[in-house]
Amino acid sequence: MTISPSIESETIESTVLGPEIELRSHISVELVDHTASDLGVVRAARVSTAGEEAHREERGDEYIGGLIRYLMRSRHGSPFEHNSMTFLVHAPIFTIRHMMRHRMWSFNEESARYKDLESVFYVPDRDRALKQVGKPGHYQYVPGSEQDYELVSEATSQAYRAAFCEYQRMLDAGIARELARVVLPVATYSTVYATCNARSLMHFLGLRTNRADATYVSHPQREIELVAEQMEAQFARLMPLTHEAFEKFGRVSP
To answer: Fewer CB near the last or first residue (10 Å), C or N of the chain?
Structure first.
């Protein structure tokens, strides 16, 4: 079976195993709530000298941008913590586990103990590099051939069908969800609420995006980078002056 690069998902039916499964390459991130602004950073910083009057201050972009650049350059990080952004992420489990490595976030995830999981599984699209070359710590990823993409599509779809068939068979027999789920792969899609502040998000972005202009160039797995890129777009929209300073000073969290 071949996955077309022009589609985000495809439903296939096994004539042998029975259940339908959906193969999906799309990873979605939605901003669902926030208390984030550049002015909030300035007010948090100004409390050290203005006291209780800090929260009443209204400043123009020139002042706000100048102070934020000073804070970023000097690594005064705490003023960037007095805000929050909540994202709804729909991604394969292995990608969500990458997110959970960052322990300064708050998470609530869909639970396979309490609900039946849907038969939706991840498969890379044609833009995803497939082959790894080089030694540990110095990997490079290169595109695969048409045969490589067909191999990945066929191998994953067969494994997913078999796993979901056994999962469903155990559920039908009355086996508890928390046990039946053990046969499902980490490519199964899950949904998570993830909340962080701007300082934590900048740390996440520094590690989970590949930017040649960063002070510390990182090489994340592409799937978690897709999450980070969508989060960064929202961050830049909500806090443009903070994001500008983050970029100016090497994409290092203060």
So the answer is: N
